[in-house]
Every structure is written in C-alpha cells, then in structure tokens.
Amino acid sequence: METPSISEGRTHPPPSAKWVDIQQKTFTNWVNEQLRPTGEQVHDLRIDFCDGLKLISLVEVLQNKAGGPGPSRRLRRIRSPVNQHQCLENVQVALNAIAADNIKLVNIGSQTRHWRFDFEEVFE
C-alpha cells in the first residue's frame, strides 16, 4: 500500500520495519539525552509517554532550554495517575504547553489512539 506524499501528490511505499525501528531508537536516544538533567529515562516510547509524566518532563526541559537562564518552569501534573482520565489530563497539560509556545499541533490530541506513540503512523 502506498501513501500519498506531502509534496506534489506523489506516493511512496510505507516505511520498512527496520527503518521504523531505527527512527524509534534514534528518537528514544534523543529524548533520553534531553531528560538526562531530570534523572528520568524512557525505554519504550509507546508506553513511557502514556501517563503524560515523562512527556511533561520533556516539555519542561525543552521550554527551559529555549527560555535561557532563569527559574525553571514547572507544569502542573497528577503525579501518580491511577486511571486513563488522569493520564490523558497529564498528556493534555504537555500538549497545551507546546501549543502555548506557538508550536502548531496538527491532528494530535490527548485521546489520539489512546496516546500510544506509533512510529509507523508518524513517519508514513
């Protein structure tokens, strides 16, 4: 099955499993490098961002880097989410912070596919 390309309506084959795996490992390594100051790590993006806590930490780190020196910004969060509603609320906090920085989010929301990070769809 070919998917339409963004440019000029061309189509291209879906990414191979190997390519998706390489992209996932590369992004995971980048996330871990960003999270290093917090002492947090991700192992499986499909799981580790689901409760929103590590996603919020990543957004905070990136916002602080962009904002330069000064007090770090702390976003509110439910520290020990116990149900899907609380997890989605945490994810929404992170998405709202991204949007507040004038970063356009297209077709992304806290309830998108139960917030399971799916590289096959992201990179199609």
Task: Furnish the topology, listing elements before pairings.
Layout: E1 3-4, E2 11-12, H1 17-35, H2 45-48, H3 53-67, H4 84-100, H5 119-122
Antiparallel strand pairs: 1-2
Protein name: Filamin-A-like
Keywords: Actin-binding, Repeat
Domain Calponin-homology (CH): 21-124
What does this 3D model show about the protein?
GO terms for molecular function: actin filament binding. Residues 21-124 form the Calponin-homology (CH) domain. It comes from Tropilaelaps mercedesae. Keywords: Actin-binding, Repeat. This is Filamin-A-like. This protein is mainly α and 124 residues long. The chain has a single domain (15-68, 79-122), classed as Actin-binding Protein, T-fimbrin, domain 1 (Orthogonal Bundle), CATH 1.10.418. The chain is built from 5 helices and 2 strands. Strands 1-2 form a two-stranded antiparallel ribbon. A hairpin with a 6-residue loop joins strand 1 and strand 2. Helix 3 packs parallel to helix 4. The longest helix has 19 residues, at 17-35. The model has no long low-confidence stretch (mean pLDDT 83).
Mean pLDDT: 83
User: Please, how many helices?
Assistant: 5
The domain count comes to: 1
Question: Which fold does the CATH topology refer to?
Answer: Actin-binding Protein, T-fimbrin, domain 1
User: Termini separation (Å)?
Assistant: 11 Å
* The CATH class: Mainly Alpha
Percentage of residues in strands: under 5%
InterPro entries: Actinin_actin-bd_CS (IPR001589), CH_dom (IPR001715), CH_dom_sf (IPR036872), Filamin (IPR044801)
Domain Calponin-homology (CH): 21-124
Organism: Tropilaelaps mercedesae
Keywords: Actin-binding, Repeat
